[in-house]
Structure formats: structure tokens, C-alpha cells
Amino acid sequence: MRTPIIAGNWKMHKTVGEAVETCRKLEEVVTDSPVEVVVCAPFTSLSALSALGMEKVQLGAQNMFYADQGAYTGEISGQMLVDTGCSYVILGHSERREIFGEDDELINKKVLKALELGLRPILCVGETLSQRKAGETEEVVVSQTAKALSGVAAEQLPQVVIAYEPIWAIGTGENSTPEDANRVIGLIRSKLAELYDGELAGQVRIQYGGSVKPENIAGFMQQPEIDGALVGGASLAVEDFAAIIDYQR
Q: Which CATH number goes with the domain that contains 38?
């Protein structure tokens, strides 16, 4: 049985004080549930959030570099994230791919380094609107998945979380239907079974991301292949994020 995972991606939002206040409130209002909750905050807030000693919320980062140290101005290493108390790190987000030019080879290096350090990658894959209209969704997401996991050992695979985020649905108010998201996530899981085996593929948690809100989360979570959500804008407000986390109530 896969444990659902709801992760909030705050992107470039919240000062340290705002981040601390938000997480304190989350700890108060989120009920005890079988859902694993992660907040992926800006680098500047990670140490302060770790110092809170949160029990209901785990800490994640939004990116990392693959080198241990060196002349990489502006970058953050995985060991730095471990030292701040992070358990998760988002890798391959479409904004990193599109705005900062990250390709599958770079993302693969990051995935391998994260796993080496005991960090759990939240690996993002997804197609653009033009790729979707051209009928290339399966080709794109399956290729991104396979390339990002190149060299990942079978015993490491269950530590990876995959987030299917159709790029056309991120921050647009548009979202995939639960049935369509379930279909694509099923294709990703089939690719994992091909790369590894069916038993291991069945252990990997695969989220949906893209304009997830309190109003639509239940529909996605009812789908058999969907194991959670990577939540953007709706994770910034405590009430909205708590409602998504407690979708079963």
C-alpha cells in the first residue's frame, strides 16, 4: 500500500518569518492522517523551519546541484540540504527546465546525487501544450522519466517520488481531468515496470501537479494510480493547503 504524499512547492515566495508562521499554523491545523506532508520552501527558510521540530510536516528543497562543493556561484549542494534537515528535494521542475535550461542529463546527475546523500527526489515530468496537442504526451513523459532515472539502482527506486505535472496546467487555473492524469501516470508506472519490474513500479509514489486546489483534490486522489499531489499556489495559504491535505474529511 503506497502512502499518499502531498507536497507544497512555495517557489519564490515567503520571507523567513512568513515561512515560519505558515508552518507553525500548519502544525496546528493539519489533522493526524495517513498522508505524508512535505513543504518545499526557499533555501533561505530551510534552517529556520528545521529548527521548529515539526512533527506533521517534513521539509523539502526546490532544487540542488550535483557537485559536493566547488566554484558554482549561486548553487546549493545536496549536503547543504541534508545539514538543514531536508528529507526531500524537487528536481526537474518545468520552471527549471524552461527558464534555466536544465536538460535530462543534468537532472539525472542531480537525482543520482540526491539518492547518494539520502535525499528523496521529487522528480517532475510533464508535457507542454504544443506537445499535448501533437499527441506526444506519452513519448515526452516516458522519455523524461527514463532519462532522469538512468543509473538509479533497483533498491533506490522506492525512494523516488515522481510528479506528473503537465506544463500547460501549472499556474494557469487549468488542470488535467482526474481520469486523464490517471492514464498518464499509469503510463509512467508501466515504464518503471519495464525499466525495473512490476513489484518495484508498484512501490513508487506518483503525484499529480497542476492547479491542484481544495475543490479538485478529492477527484485526483480517488484515481488508483495517483498517490498524491505537488501543490503550487494553493500551498501558500494555510487554509487551502490544510484542506488539500485533509481531503478525506
A: 3.20.20.70
